[in-house]
Write a structure and sequence with these properties.
The complex is a heterodimer of chains A (299) and B (272). Helix content of chain A is 74%, strand content 0%. With 299 residues, chain A is mainly α. Chain B is built from twelve helices and no strands. Helices cover 76% and strands 0% of the residues of chain B. Chain B is globular. Classes of the chains: A mainly alpha (299), B mainly alpha (272). The interface between A and B is large, with 99 and 96 residues.
Chain lengths: 299, 272
């Protein structure tokens, strides 16, 4: 088959290369217009006083670093940043990641029925449309909801979304998202050979030590990947909090996405909202870079 | 502690976890069939299908579900098509920018899309795309593309290149080889990518909430929210019934994927 191919000259070669790359055009175009575009656009808008309505909506003015100066002096930003950290560490790093790993480890080598029961219950909360999941939680936590009905005999009924709003949205997000970590860890554990743990058991290592010294090191990469992914997913959580508390009461659950939404769409300040979204993107990008780097060998 | 005792303890713990996860969902199931639905899960006092009858009309549920189908189905098809075309050169040719490109795609899979919704809205206003279903579909397709490209490329890498070489010898072009040799072998994988995109778009609330303002164009996700937003006049039974109608397709699709390919498969393809 080589004999028939003439030696191509440079121009024909570059023509051949571009013909080979042509199929990539639709994807590159879509990503450029709708993913890279908005990111660049947010840089542009955050230097203007763009608004939702009025004169500043049709012809926004360039205001330089004004939005940034205002943002970093705004106590609401620092409050939201802190709430976001608590929400992310609590619900993603500790909650989803820890509980997902626990379920995966405990349900390993159990009978099928038990495994499937736990799997279905946990995954159900995850595959539901986000709005339905949020409603189900809203009803569950309502003063007249299922939780208080269950606690009725103990005298612990209360209005959870007012008495412990941040804890409520954190646990809500754990409920919603644990399935992802569980599936990741179930897949990772299924590739760990059991012989090693058995050998350690023969040597007298207890269950906890076997897990810590044998199993955990072998799934280290999955743990790292999962931590990055759940952190990124949790940074972007909007609907769950919006339906449960809308950021309140007061600003008790106002994470950065909620603050961004309020400034842009409730207070009509698109320019300022875009500045907040730029901050959120920067934080997300930082984690996304770490995530991509941990998987670099795959590329 | 003896082995049997500890095994029983673990079993009880797992059952407890399963109950805790199922508890918030019970209400959806009981309230939908209850004539006077409360906010807590309870055996329906008067069993009825009225709630479904009430919401099953064009404006309340059928149009939003249809809109959702157009948006999510369109996004899934565009995303799969663009991903296949994009993944093929990445999987088959030795390209100089292959690594940086894949690295960027991987990076993009992690970016929180929520964060770009304000600039996207502002961009859509400027280019007169607010309330455009096509614009929203393209946006949903584009945001799911990084994962779709990544998964599709992994599936393609699993097809031995020797199969295509045979087709090349017979004079087939690259795209012909892709269509007749590679595609049939990765159809199961591609259906996972498509269903994955569909489920994500179908369940997404924030994107259509921001980009589609006309109720005639809004999908089910935003429709349910309108129900909820009617202040004190919430008909819980109807809300639950609507939620079940809206959720059913997702459950069916998820079962299809996890049945044919094993539950964890979707994810290993995505993040391995």
């Amino acid at each position: 088959m080589t004999a028939a191919v003439p030696r191509p000259d440079i121009s024909r070669r570059s023509a051949a290369v571009s013909r080979r790359l042509l199929p990539m055009a639709p994807a590159v175009l879509l990503l450029g217009l709708f993913v890279a575009g908005p990111i660049l656009w947010s840089v542009y808008v955050s230097f203007t006083n763009a608004a939702l309505t009025g004169a500043a909506a049709t012809s926004p003015e360039f205001v330089g670093l004004e939005n940034f100066r205002r943002l970093f002096a705004d106590p609401a930003l620092w409050h939201s940043a802190w709430v976001t950290v608590v929400f992310t560490v609590g619900s993603a790093v500790i909650g989803q990641n820890g509980l997902g790993l626990l379920i995966a480890v405990l349900s390993r080598n159990r009978n099928r029925l038990l495994r499937n029961t736990v799997g279905v219950a946990v995954v159900s909360a995850w595959v539901l449309p986000e709005l339905v999941a949020a409603f189900a939680l809203y009803a569950f936590l309502n003063p007249e909801g299922t939780l208080n009905a269950l606690l009725g005999g103990l005298g612990m009924e209360q209005e959870w979304l007012y008495s412990a709003p941040l804890l409520a949205v954190i646990l809500g997000n754990v409920w919603r998202g644990t399935a992802f970590s569980m599936l990741v860890y179930q897949a990772a554990l299924s590739e760990v050979p059991t012989e090693l743990a058995e050998a350690a058991e023969v040597d007298g290592a207890g269950a906890l030590r076997r897990f810590w010294h044998v199993t955990l090191p072998m799934i280290r990469r999955s743990v790292l990947t999962n931590l990055m992914l759940v952190t990124l997913q949790t940074l972007g959580v909007f609907t769950l909090i919006y339906v449960l508390t809308a950021g309140g009461p007061g600003d008790a659950t106002q994470t950065l996405p909620l603050l961004m939404y309020d400034e842009a769409f409730e207070l009509d300040e698109i320019g300022y909202g875009a500045t907040i979204s730029l901050v959120l993107l920067a934080v997300g990008a930082l984690f996304a870079v770490i995530y991509a780097r941990t998987l670099r060998e795959e590329v | 502690m003896s082995r049997r005792a500890s095994s029983k303890l673990v079993g009880a713990l797992l059952c407890g976890i399963a109950l805790l996860f199922a508890a918030p969902l019970l209400w959806l199931l009981t309230a939908a069939f209850d004539a006077e639905a409360p906010l807590a899960a309870a055996v329906p006092g008067r069993f009825t299908l009225d709630n479904f009858g009430q919401v099953l009309n064009w404006e309340t549920s059928i149009r939003p579900l249809w809109n959702g189908l157009l948006l999510s189905g369109g996004a899934a098809m565009i995303s799969v098509l663009a991903a296949v075309l994009c993944a093929y050169p990445l999987s088959r040719y030795r390209l100089r920018f292959r690594r940086p490109f894949l690295y960027t795609v991987l990076f993009a899979t992690g970016l929180p899309i929520t964060a770009v919704m304000v600039p996207v809205y502002s961009m859509f206003v400027r280019f007169d795309l607010v309330d455009s279903m096509l614009g929203t579909t393209l946006f949903l397709a584009a945001t799911s593309l990084p994962v779709a490209i990544w998964m599709t490329k992994n599936f393609m890498d699993g097809v031995p290149i020797s199969l295509e070489e045979a087709a090349w010898v017979d004079g087939a072009s690259a795209l012909q080889a892709l269509r007749s040799v590679v595609l049939p072998l990765i159809v199961p994988g591609l259906s996972v990518v498509g269903i994955f995109t569909f489920i994500n778009a179908w369940g997404n609330f924030f994107v259509p909430f921001v980009l589609l303002l006309d109720p005639a164009k809004q999908p089910a996700a935003v429709g349910v929210f309108a129900f909820f937003g009617q202040g004190g006049l919430i008909a819980y039974g109807q809300l639950a019934a609507y939620s079940i109608l809206y959720t059913a397709p997702v459950i069916a699709l998820y079962l299809m994927v996890s049945r044919s390919l094993g539950g964890a498969f979707t994810l290993t393809g995505a993040i391995k």
